[in-house]
């Protein structure tokens, strides 16, 4: 029975439409007042009333998904004209084109101290995530892998009745399994062609597996963060060309909410250059808002689009956004050059039959051809690489495919080399031939050796699994960075977690002699996709402890607060977390968030910051300038904005303060809740950057009031930490400030090919570390210079508008145009330039203007130094 006050919206035309003109739209509508939806059929009827008709000319249905919980709306095949006509219908809010999202691609439980004597798995906290259900939205799962055995698992929670589409049923570990393939599908969510979902699920909640390794490397006992948590699988990502369609992702979230999962594990995000620009265009953020309102914790990947700023794939305050760091483990493969110098790289495949002797070294990309620079498919024909060690840059195709190309051409081994953008982050992949993946600085020296020797040689030796490498953890180059301008200065990402060379479950055999499906195979993967399930599993541990201790379940914002305020800002040696993209700089708040997640401390955070539902509404009203229609997309009813607050006033466990030339004072308040012992005293303190004057209230028992006022003088740094101490505990509140300057000078570049750029723009100015200011902008007007380069030599004339010391300038000043890139290529002429170098670091997939600039900085001593 379908009850409605008034009539359903009429069909407006009879055109059938055809698939060549239609695309998938996600349509947001208001719930009709006074209507009770009694079933899925009634909901579909309501949604179909917005459509011009129910089928296309091909007979395919227009309506793909009717969403019940994630959003108020549906996904359908429509033309732009049909969407435009729909805007006149009562109840219509917005239609967004469905977007293509992408996946953000053993030992870590020890690295995070879960299994230590007083860790989160210790006797007093030994619930291992029991009773908690993690909803994994990904590429499916390999059900028969031992990581998903139900040995030692408790029965599924009472009342759980989600569908299982595996023919033989599920078990006590995997308690739900569904697929979404352009409509809810009965297909089993198997994961034999991608592996990503299997790997992610194993990291979050894989059961204990003894004797796990990858081709004999990193042997040990594998386990997820929450090995006794249950998993419900929602396959929303498919092989190319389908990928992770946002319409299907919303369907998976919708079903997970209805099923009653406790955590949403989502290791996917926007493609590069398509990061969300506003919340009303971010359908996933709208869906996770609905999940949060139901008490479900959304855990999302920051993205793999670093190291550039403003590249986050998720930025909603109710989403836990996770960046990626390295571990102190390396699978060592050492390159020794003919002159005796050694460079440590990585690879998982380490054959003991590879000869320990020097072989000729060859660099196919020395001619400047991109396809040979990256050893792309069929690029080595006509080049003599037989029996030689081949040098290939990262980029273009997967590193393992490069090795296949080298092996096909007769090469004996391969050196995979980082560009400057990739910094020190290397991969221990399961290659099919001997390989060493080296960092940028080492690659540069190997290239220099090759260029200066008429008969260069090298050999690769294998050192197996090495622990204790420093610095660790370090921020991976690919980890996406803030700020996210559209979220009202909410600091993102939130935290980091291990995401480089993570060992976890894998559905098929790996290495040079694969034999198809295996019951017990593991693999190394890197990405924020790998970091995110670490946090999802830790959240399960927190929820499980509260549940089994019969304590009040914390709200999603309180759990988020516990993770953020207890994160580690220092590495294993007590030094600031290092950024692998910049070689010698520590990562700041906009890059690494609050720091490395600390599972043990997060279970006892002391004080937490809670956000009430009505505060989120007020925040959205502020973000959308009291546009009730946009806010209603989140609340799913007709919401009128009666109160609005700016982002910095949301009771979030970090503070991002916008500062402008007219800003004399900004007052920020926070409310804390004591979830620790009943009688604890916290002393408030403030670690301030230059130019920030704090105001502190007296110490209070059972909590403290944070400094209320932040006064701007001359802002120079932006990495203070707000701390409240209680004996051996502390609560920290990350604080980030940013301001803007307008370029007062015309930017004018004249390149040899006649390309030029000129214009005035507004740019962010953000502090990089405590000791180094980092300026992003092509025309800040602080320095002027002239460069003239001829062939292999570069004569430099510099004219500076400030007194800048020159000792730290590198001897060869290189600007690269990557439309036709080759290593060590000098600019032939670049004159009358007045600009700073932009943050856009050389990348073979960027445009000319994006690729022309290299990252530099000015230190506090006034030196102009390369980073």
Automatic annotation (TrEMBL):
* Keywords for this protein: Cell wall, Glycoprotein, Hydrolase, Protease, Secreted, Serine protease, Signal
Localized where? Secreted, Cell wall
Q: Which residues form the Inhibitor I9 domain?
A: 25-103
| Subtilisin-like protease fibronectin type-III domain segment(s) | 649-693
Q: Do you know which Pfam families this protein is assigned to?
A: fn3_6, Inhibitor_I9, PA, PAE, Peptidase_S8
Name of the molecule in the record: Uncharacterized protein
Family from the record: Belongs to the pectinacetylesterase family.
The active site consists of 138 (charge relay system), 196 (charge relay system), 529 (charge relay system)
Where the record annotates domain Peptidase S8/S53, the positions are 129-568
Q: What is its main location?
A: secreted
Q: Which GO terms describe its molecular function?
A: serine-type endopeptidase activity
């Amino acid at each position: 029975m379908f009850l409605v006050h008034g009539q359903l919206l009429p069909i407006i035309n009879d055109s059938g439409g055809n698939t060549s003109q239609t695309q998938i739209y996600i349509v947001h509508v208001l719930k009709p007042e006074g209507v009770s939806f009694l079933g899925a059929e009634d909901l579909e009827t309501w949604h179909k009333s917005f459509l011009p008709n129910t089928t296309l000319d091909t007979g395919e249905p227009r309506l793909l998904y009717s969403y019940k919980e994630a959003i108020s709306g549906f996904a359908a095949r429509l033309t732009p004209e049909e969407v435009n006509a729909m805007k006149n219908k009562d109840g219509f809010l917005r239609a967004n084109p469905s977007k293509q999202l992408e996946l953000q691609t053993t030992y870590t439980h020890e690295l995070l101290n879960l299994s230590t004597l007083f860790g989160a798995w210790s006797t007093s906290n030994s619930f291992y995530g029991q009773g908690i259900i993690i909803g994994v939205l990904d590429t499916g799962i390999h059900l028969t892998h031992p990581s998903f055995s139900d040995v030692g698992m408790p029965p599924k929670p009472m009342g759980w009745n989600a569908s299982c589409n595996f023919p033989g049923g599920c078990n006590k570990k995997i308690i739900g399994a569904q697929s979404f393939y352009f409509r809810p599908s009965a297909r089993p969510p198997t994961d034999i062609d991608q592996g990503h979902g299997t790997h992610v699920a194993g990291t979050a909640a894989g059961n204990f597996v003894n004797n796990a390794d990858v081709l004999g490397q990193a042997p040990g006992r594998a386990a997820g963060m929450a090995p006794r948590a249950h998993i419900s699988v929602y396959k929303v990502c498919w092989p190319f060309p389908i990928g992770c369609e946002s319409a299907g992702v919303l369907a998976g979230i919708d079903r997970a909410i209805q099923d009653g999962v406790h955590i949403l594990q989502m290791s996917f995000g926007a493609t590069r250059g398509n990061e969300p620009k506003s919340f009303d265009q971010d359908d996933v953020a709208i869906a996770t808002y609905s999940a949060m309102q139901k008490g479900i914790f959304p855990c999302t990947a920051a993205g793999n689009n670093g190291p550039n700023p403003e590249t986050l794939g998720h930025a909603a305050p109710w989403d836990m956004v996770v960046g990626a760091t390295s571990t102190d483990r390396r699978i060592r493969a050492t390159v020794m050059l003919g002159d005796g110098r050694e460079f440590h790289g990585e690879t998982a495949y380490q054959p003991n039959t590879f000869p320990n002797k020097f072989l000729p070294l060859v660099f196919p990309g020395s001619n400047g051809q991109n396809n040979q620079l990256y050893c792309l498919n069929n690029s080595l024909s006509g080049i003599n690489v037989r029996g030689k060690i081949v040098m290939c840059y990262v980029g273009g195709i997967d590193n393992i495919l490069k090795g296949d190309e080298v092996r096909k051409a007769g090469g004996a081994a391969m050196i995979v080399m980082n560009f400057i953008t990739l910094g020190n982050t290397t991969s221990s992949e399961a290659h099919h031939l001997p390989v060493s993946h080296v960092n940028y600085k080492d690659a540069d020296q190997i290239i220099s050796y090759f260029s200066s020797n008429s008969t260069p040689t090298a050999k690769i030796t294998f050192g197996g699994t090495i622990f204790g490498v420093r610095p660790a953890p370090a921020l991976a180059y690919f980890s996406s960075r803030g700020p996210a301008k559209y979220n009202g200065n909410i600091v993102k990402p939130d935290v980091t977690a291990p995401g480089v060379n993570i060992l976890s479950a894998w559905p098929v055999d790996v290495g040079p002699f694969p034999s198809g499906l295996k019951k017990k195979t593991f693999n190394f993967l890197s990405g924020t996709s790998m970091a995110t399930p670490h946090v999802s599993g830790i959240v399960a541990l927190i929820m499980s402890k509260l549940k089994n201790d019969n304590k009040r379940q914390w709200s999603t914002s309180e759990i988020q607060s516990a993770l953020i305020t207890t994160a580690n800002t220092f590495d294993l040696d007590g030094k600031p977390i290092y950024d692998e993209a910049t070689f010698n700089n520590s990562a700041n708040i906009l890059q690494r968030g609050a720091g490395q997640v600390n599972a043990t401390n997060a279970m006892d955070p002391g004080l937490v910051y809670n956000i009430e539902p009505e505060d989120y509404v007020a925040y959205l009203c502020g973000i959308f300038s009291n546009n009730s229609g946009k806010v209603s997309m989140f609340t799913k009813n007709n919401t009128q904005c009666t109160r609005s607050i700016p982002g910095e006033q949301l009771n979030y466990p970090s503070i991002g303060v916008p500062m402008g030339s007219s800003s004399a004072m900004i007052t920020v308040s926070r409310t804390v809740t004591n979830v620790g012992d009943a009688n604890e005293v916290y002393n408030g303190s403030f670690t301030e950057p230059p130019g920030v004057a704090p105001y502190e209230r007296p110490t209070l028992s059972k909590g403290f009031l944070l400094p209320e006022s932040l006064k701007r003088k001359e802002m120079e740094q932006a990495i203070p930490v707000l701390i409240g101490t209680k004996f051996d505990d502390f609560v920290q509140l990350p604080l980030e400030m940013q301001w803007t300057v307008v370029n007062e000078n015309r930017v004018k570049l004249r390149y040899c090919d006649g390309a030029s750029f000129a214009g005035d723009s507004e740019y962010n100015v953000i502090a990089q570390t405590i000791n180094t200011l980092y300026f992003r902008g092509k025309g800040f007007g602080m320095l002027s210079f002239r460069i003239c380069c001829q062939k292999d030599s570069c004569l430099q004339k510099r004219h500076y508008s400030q007194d800048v010391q020159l000792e730290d300038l590198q001897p060869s000043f290189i600007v690269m145009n990557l439309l036709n890139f080759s290593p060590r290529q000098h600019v032939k002429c670049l004159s009358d330039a007045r600009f700073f170098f932009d943050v856009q670091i050389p990348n073979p997939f960027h445009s000319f203007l994006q690729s022309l600039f290299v990252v530099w900085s000015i230190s506090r001593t006034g030196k102009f130094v390369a980073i």
